[in-house]
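Action item from last meeting closed. Structure (71 res):
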């Protein structure tokens, strides 16, 4: 889950540039028990969101690091 203090909170998927920076793609978001499939690039990331990523282990690890540390 996206931590409360993450710099990613309040930013859109587009603004985070996850795919560009890591190669991983956000293919779904779980938010408060609801599933958002194929989220729009304009979807805003919220604290406690669970982002479902598509990519290899390195790409997904890079995305996790980006979201948790320095978006």
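Sequence:
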């Amino acid at each position: 889950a996206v931590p409360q203090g993450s710099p990613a909170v309040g930013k859109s998927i587009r603004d985070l540039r996850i795919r560009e920076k890591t190669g991983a793609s956000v293919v779904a978001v779980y938010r408060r028990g609801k599933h958002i499939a194929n989220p729009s690039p304009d979807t805003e990331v919220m604290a406690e969101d669970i982002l479902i990523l598509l990519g290899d282990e390195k790409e997904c690890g890079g995305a996790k690091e980006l979201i948790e540390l320095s978006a």
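Note appended to the action item: The mean pLDDT is 94.
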